[in-house]
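Two quick folds needed for the group meeting slides. Do the first one here.
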Amino acid sequence: MDDELSAIDWEQMDMIADGYTSDFVEICREFAGEIPGLFATLDGYFKDNDLAKTARVAHQIKGSSANFGFIGVSVPMAAVEASAKAGSLEGFSERLELARTNFERARQELLENRGIRL
C-alpha cells in the first residue's frame, strides 16, 4: 500500500466534475494548461523580489487549484501567499518545486483514477 498522500482531493474533484462530462474535462484541461505559465510568472516575480505580485499570483494558483481539488498544489501556494504577505519569500523555491511536482502527480492521478489526460 502506498502511504503517500494523494495530490488530489477526490471529494472536491468529484463534486465539481458532475460525472466528468466533456465540458468539465475541457475546463480542467484549460486550467491545467494555464498552471505551468503561472508557475513561471510566479518564479519571475520571486526573482524580482516583488512580494505583492508573488502573493497575488500564488493566491490565483492556490484558489484555482483548490477549486479543482489539486490540494498538493494549493497547500504550498497558500504558504507562499502567506509568507509573501508577511514580507518574506523564505522557502519559496522549495514550495514552488513541491507545487510543480504535485501538479504533475495530480495529472497522473487523474489519468490513472478517472481516465482523464490533461
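Then this one, please, same format:
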Amino acid sequence: MHSHAGGDRHHDGFQQVTSVEAARARLLAVLDAVDGIEQVPLEAADGRVTATALTASVDVPAYDRAAMDGWAVQAEDTYGASPRRPELLDVLEAEAATAPETAVHSGGAVRVHTGSQLPTGADAIVMLEQADHVEGQLEVTSTVSPGTNVAPIGEDISADQQLYTAGHRLRPSDLGLLRSVGRAEVPVRAQPRVSVIPTGEEVVHADPGPGEVIETNGLTVSRLVSRWGAHPSYREVVNDDPDALAGALRADLDHDLIVTTGGSSVGSRDLLPEVVEGLGTVTVHGVALKPGHPVAIGVVDDTPIVMLPGYPVAAIINAMQFVRPAIAALLGVAPQAVPTRTGRLHRKIVSEPGVRSFVRVRVERTDEGHLKVDPVMVGGSGVLSSVALADGWVVVEEAAEGIEAEEEVTVEFWEGLP
C-alpha cells in the first residue's frame, strides 16, 4: 500500500486515462485460453471447466422403475375398476421392494417402492391409496393405463446423449448428473497459473512497526484468484527497488498472468510501470474508475501483467474489473454474471463526471419487504473494512453526476445474493 498511490484522486499525475472497457479490451487482447487437460476426480471438479464434450454412456434409469410407492400390475387388469366396483387381484408377494424376479401375471400384483425395478410382466403402478390389501387380495379402486407411474428406461438420460459441451463450468448439480451416468473422473481444462506479487518497502506480513502496514492485498487477491478458477502463487513482499521488482517479474514469466499490488501510481516509490516498460510494454496506465484509477496493464514476453493499486479497496475493485475477466479468458469461458438486486437508495451518492465510480453499500430489507441501499463510504479507498462490511456496490456510470436519494439502483453483490 503506497501513500503516494492517489487511489481517490482522479487525473492526479496522469496525463491520460483509459476507459474501463478499453483497458479491459487491451488486456483480453493478449490473453489466450490455456492449453492442457487434467483428469480430476468428480468430487474435485466443482467450478472447473470441461475440456471436452461429455456424453452419457448409459441410460438413466437403466431399467423401468416405479415412480410411486404402490402395486405393480398389468394395466388391463384394472380396466373398469372404481370405488364402487373394485377389481380383485392376487397379491403375489406381500413385500417385494426390488422384485424384478417376481413376474406379474395376468390377475396378479406385486408391492413395489419408489425407485425399485418394475417386475417382469408389469406395465403400470397402482398407487397405495387406489387399492386395499385384504387377506392376500388387492381391491383396486381406480383404472390405470400402461406406463402409469412408471419411469421408463432412459427417461432421465439416454445413452449417447450429450450432457455438456466443452467450456462448461461445472456446478454441484452437474457433478450429481455425471455420477448418475457412472463417471468417476472428468476431463477439465488446466487451471491458469497466476502469480500474485505484493510490493512496497512499508508492507510486512506480521508485526508492523511505525510506518509499516500488514500485507492484505496479496492475500485477498490470491484467494479471489483461486475462487475465480485459477491457481495462485502468492509471493513474498518485494521492496520498492527496480532490480528486485524486475527479478520478481522475470521469475514468474512462466505463469499465465502476473498480478502485482502497490507501486502502480506516479509517486516517487511507484516504480512498477517503469520496470514493466523496461522489460516489455505498458499498454494502460491510469483508468477512469474510482477508487483505484492508478491501475496499469502491461506485457512482458507474452505474459500479461496487471498492476493493481496499493489501496485495499482499489485493489479489490480493480481485481474484479480486470483479473476476474482475465482468468475467465484464460479458461476460455465468459465471466460469470455478478449477482444483482435492485433497491432504493437511502442517501445521495456524489460522483465525478467522466469516471466510473464503485460505491460500497449495505443492503437491508425493510418491514415492507423492499431493499434499502445505504452507502458505506464514498471515499477512503484505503479502508479495507468498508469492503469487508459492505454487501456490494452501486456502479455510477461515467455520464452520471451521482445518484439522488430515493432513486432505484442496482446493487452488485460481490459475495453472492443476500
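Slide caption for protein two: The longest strand covers residues 356-365.
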